[in-house]
Every structure is written in structure tokens, then in C-alpha cells.
Design brief:
Blueprint: H1 2-33, E1 42-56, E2 65-75, E3 80-91, E4 121-138, E5 147-164, E6 185-199, E7 206-220, E8 238-252
Antiparallel strand pairs: 1-2, 1-8, 2-3, 3-4, 4-5, 5-6, 6-7, 7-8
Length: 264
């Protein structure tokens, strides 16, 4: 179990470090190309992270959740920002009571095919992709590209319960059987952000940080829950919420400035 978990963690860390390394290369190139001391228009790429808590109908399933994502867009000279972001949500704070209770014996254990207790992990996983529009409101005249940022997004959201048995063989939690437990839910997603956006006059220090609010208007996609086989799965609209913080690092991609040449 530990070996498998460590391998997954290393793989995720390697991908994240590779992304950081790639952005550092881009930012170093950007630094060499231009100093920014006036309101500019520029495309950009970036990454962000946020700790979140749940509310509404989502609170019955999951608690504390992490979000890590990427963002790409275009900032205009009038400080409007248009972009697209994609976010992966994950956590281990599962609150669904009795989700696999029907598989446990009188000792509260789930037995694998070898006749020994299985180790079963419950985690939440999700994904959303959105179009966004933001407005940066400068504070003072010293840095016209920095200031309070207000952002609105809308898009698609998907989330489910992930059940892992690691190295154990548990037929009841493999293949199509998992579909009766995973609580797959999809729908429309909106979010709002308010915080501070900072773009340095030069260098790689370009970031934003603030409060994040998300709303999901979703519907269950499964027709049967194995832990409640005699109950009809609700297809009513679910009103889900997440709220927390978000910190992002942005890399503007400046055009090379044309050099002036003088001839005698």
C-alpha cells in the first residue's frame, strides 16, 4: 500500500515540478525582453492552488478539498483579462455515511480474496473547466497593471468518490461495481474571485491572491447506489458550494521590443 501511494505522490510531484521548471524558463525569457512600467496588453500562462471548504449539497459528501489548476488568458491595456482555466480538486475528507457498510463483516472489516482484511481508501476527485473575465482596478499610479482584481467564471464541473483498494483484491470494489458507489455528478459551474493582482515592473514576481467562491448546479449521473439499493437515486438539481482561498503565479508573455538602430 505504502509503495503504491508513494509512487503516485512522486509521479504527481514530478509533473508539478516539470510545470514549474517550464514556467521559470518562460519567465526568464520574459524578463529579458521587456520592462513593464505602463498599462500593457499581453497573453499569459500560470498556475494556482487553493484550500477549500464545502457548503450546500456538497457538504453532505465531502469536507476540506484542495484545488490545483492552470490558467491562460489575455490582459488588455484597459486591464480587462479574458481567459480559460482548468482545475483538479482532490481530498480525503469523505462524509458519506455507510458508503461501503454493506460490504463489511461483523468486525467492520472488508475481506479480500486472500481472506485477510483489505485496506480501502475513500477520496474525492473532481475537475472543472471554465471561461473567465476579470477586471483589475489599479490602486495609485505607480503600477497601472496591479490592483484589486474581480473575476467571474462559468463552465463545466465533474466530481465523484474514488475508492482505492491498493494491493488488495476486492471483487465488490472493482470494475463496473464501482459505478454503484462513486456518486458521479456533473453539471454547470460558476465562481467568483476577489483579491489582489500584482504585476512587477520587471522580473518574475507576478501573482494574485484572494478569496474564492464556487457554485455547482449538478445532477447525479448514476441510477443506482449499491449502499441504498432499495432507494431511487434523486435526479433533482443539486446546489453545491465551495469557498476558500486561491493563490496564483502568472507569467506574462511579452513580445520582443524592436531595437532602434542609428546610422551616421
Amino acid at each position: 500500500m505504502e509503495k503504491h501511494a508513494i509512487t503516485n505522490t512522486i509521479t504527481l510531484n514530478q509533473k508539478f515540478l516539470f510545470l514549474i521548471f517550464a514556467l521559470l524558463i518562460i519567465s526568464a525569457e520574459a524578463k529579458a525582453q521587456r520592462d513593464v512600467s505602463e498599462a500593457i496588453s499581453t497573453p499569459y500562462v500560470g498556475i494556482h492552488y487553493g484550500p477549500n471548504w464545502t457548503g450546500g449539497d456538497l457538504k453532505d459528501r465531502y469536507g476540506f478539498t484542495n484545488t490545483i489548476g492552470t490558467h491562460t488568458g489575455y490582459k488588455t491595456k484597459r486591464n480587462w483579462v479574458y481567459g480559460i482555466d482548468a482545475n483538479f480538486t482532490f481530498g480525503s475528507d469523505v462524509k458519506i455515511e455507510g458508503i461501503i457498510q454493506n460490504l463489511k463483516d461483523e468486525k467492520g472489516q472488508i475481506i479480500n480474496t486472500s481472506g485477510t482484511p483489505a485496506i480501502v481508501l475513500l477520496m474525492n476527485r473532481g475537475f472543472n473547466v471554465n471561461a473567465s473575465v476579470s477586471k483589475i482596478i489599479p490602486i495609485g499610479k505607480s503600477n497601472p497593471n496591479s490592483g484589486i482584481m474581480i473575476q467571474l467564471t462559468a463552465g463545466y464541473v465533474w466530481h465523484k468518490l474514488r475508492i482505492e483498494t491498493q494491493e488488495d483484491e476486492v471483487p465488490q470494489l472493482q470494475g463496473d461495481y464501482l459505478l454503484g458507489y462513486d456518486r458521479l455528478t456533473t453539471g454547470f459551474n460558476t465562481s467568483q474571485f476577489i483579491g489582489y493582482n500584482f504585476m512587477a515592473d520587471r522580473g518574475i514576481l507576478n501573482f494574485y491572491a484572494g478569496a474564492y467562491f464556487q457554485q455547482g448546479f449538478t445532477v447525479n449521473q448514476r441510477d443506482l447506489f449499491w449502499d441504498h439499493p432499495n432507494e431511487k437515486v434523486s435526479k433533482d438539481l443539486r446546489m453545491e458550494q465551495m469557498f476558500g482561498l486561491r493563490v496564483g503565479w502568472l507569467i506574462p508573455i511579452y513580445k520582443r521590443q524592436v531595437k532602434d538602430y542609428y546610422y551616421n
